[in-house]
Amino acid sequence: MAITTTTVAEAESSEPLEASSRFAWLRAFRRPWTLTGVIVVFIFCVLAVIGPWIAPYDPSAVSKQTLMPPSPEHWLGTTQTGQDILSQMLYGTQVSMLVGVGAAIVATVLSVLVGLAAGYLGGLTDELLSLLANVFLVIPALPLTVILASYLPKTGSLGIILVISITGWAWGARVLRAQTLSLRKRDFVEAARATGERTSRIIFRDIFPNQIAIIAASFLGTVTGAILTQASLAFLGLTNVTEWSWGTILYWAQVSSAMLTGAWWWFVPAGLAIALLGTGLSLVNFGIDEFINPRLRQAGIGTKKAQRAQAKAKRQAIVKRPQRKRGERSAPVPFDPVTSDVILEVRNLTVDYIGENSVTPAVNDVSLTLRRGEVLGIAGESGSGKSTLAYAITRLHKPPAQISGGEMLYTNADGTKTDILSMSDSELRDFRWEELSIVFQSAMHALNPILTIGAQLDDSLRAHRPDMTKQERAARVIELLGLVGIQTDRVNAYPHELSGGMRQRAMIAVGLALDPEIIVMDEPTTALDVVIQRQIIEKIIELKERLGFSVIFITHDLSLLIELSDTIAVMYAGRVVELADAKEFYRNPRHPYSQGLLASFPTLSGPKHELTGIPGSPPDLRRLPAGCAFADRCPLAFDRCTTVVPPLIPLAGPAEWRQPEAACLLYEGDGAAASALSADDSDFAELEDAR
């Protein structure tokens, strides 16, 4: 397929933006409270490392200067036995920080592994790991900590780290599991799964980064909690009281009745250090949350230098992109329903939702044909099976959805047919995005909120084009943004920084990344205003004519489909009830359901008329009627409609268009339709007038 793109030099010119993004973490320090917290924590970390070296005295050495207040010789005073409190504080900082950070690392690693694995893998893994976490949650933490610590009084800091870790990981795991359960249903995770990425990569590339703010807050909170727990255990004498820590200092102050004797300098420094470190960690947490969450960032996406680089990139010459490595694409030609060859054929496809005691047919015996360069529109009310069909075609359905029967035959460029349903996981990995891609319904949920648009495009290329260099991928990303009408200086923009229309264009760019032959678009204009809808539709038509791919466009908006599609299939209760050329469908809809749908839309020209709509509601798929599912709402139904399920019946139509079909008993047999559609049928006359 011959298309134009930017040069590698142009892609390289975008590197200043990438370079500037490498230092985006510096933005976290522009908040004074964040900087204050970092300074406080940094000072304590430095003191923990060098404290024993700079201590003026041995913390255990006694002297005759007993219970002395702060003085030039002893900056923080002395104890009842003449020990220097400053030296004890410096030594104690190392032990307290070691226990706090060590316990936080172990507890956080345990909570991340258990929480993410349980939430994403589900099933038996989730049940077992959740049971383990629940056991630790119901056990009172403080009594358990005291009991364990009392059996490990001489193990030093390592024993305290293990005790605090064992008792402190379960809550974090529970929170991360709940967040993972929510994230794994997001469309950007489905998109990553569709590209064939490994489970471990999805967990740590797509889910884990979205929870860093929660993990960081849990880690910093665990550090504070571990320091407080260690101080409490030491204060109660449950640790090695000869090992200096802030808790040990408080223990000896309490044993020596420092508060009763008014020796405030003995216990205030340790308590103040704990409070000050906890405050500093909290302030750092605010900065981490701002850095991790792009929505909280206030700075722009690029510098003047980067903007000049982008302006220069736009002036670069354009060259042809290298040809596809997995087979040549046929040259794009206008769609011709007579001469165009079939690229996808769906035969008698059935998709059921399997419950404990029920089977719900969401897609029931659906047969469709998609030709090269064609836009096949699928319409119907909510719950008619449109999205289930889209997920079945792309093999993205998950339990309880199950394909119970049928075939989906894909014909590649050399004419070889392959049943998509028989593909292995590795074959699906190559097939998805290479030959068939999907544009999900909600771009805000389909795009990873913590990755830039350019990074998400690059991710698809890296997964399927391992032989492409970094410069070639960057050039392709710039090209894709240009194809969908997004300025290339938005390559480092996050999804929330784009408008709804731009996000949807970005999703289309992701779908085009690997030059697929078929793109399934599942209601891509949902929640967009009519002006943006128009722009998206025009862009889809432009790209289709330019690149020659085929489109399955799913929506409940018939007026949109009539303008965009070559062929329209109308679904009701999991079945296709009408299939016709878009122009013929608009001129002469055959099925009463289609007539009712069209009568629900106002016209922009011609005489005014009352919008009739369709009375009633779609049937419950779990309890479908014996005959036609539309019979209860149909103004033309007769007795046989309640007992016989109508098949798709070929009808007469213009020779130059696709032969229309309708699943309605009104068209069964010679003269049946004419007798049913009698002139004195007022209901049908109203439908005709509305049309």
Automatic annotation (TrEMBL):
The transmembrane residues are 32-55, 97-121, 128-152, 158-176, 212-236, 264-288
Domain of life of the organism in this record? Bacteria
- Which is one Gene Ontology cellular component term of this protein? plasma membrane
- Asked whether the keyword Metal-binding is assigned, the reply is no
Tell me the Gene Ontology biological-process terms attached to this UniProt entry.
peptide transport; transmembrane transport
Cite the Gene3D superfamilies for this sequence.
Answer: MetI-like, P-loop containing nucleotide triphosphate hydrolases
Output the InterPro entries linked to this UniProt entry: AAA+_ATPase, ABC_transporter-like_ATP-bd, ABC_transporter-like_CS, MetI-like, MetI-like_sf, Oligopep_ABC_C, OppC_N, P-loop_NTPase
For this UniProt record, the keywords arranged alphabetically read as follows: ATP-binding, Membrane, Nucleotide-binding, Transmembrane, Transmembrane helix, Transport
CDD domains per the record?
A: ABC_NikE_OppD_transporters, TM_PBP2
Which compartments does it reside in?
A: Cell membrane; Membrane
Annotated ranges, domain ABC transporter? 344-598
**Membrane topology per record:** Multi-pass membrane protein
Q: Which family does it belong to?
A: Belongs to the binding-protein-dependent transport system permease family.
Q: What is this protein called?
A: Peptide ABC transporter ATP-binding protein
Origin species:
Leifsonia poae
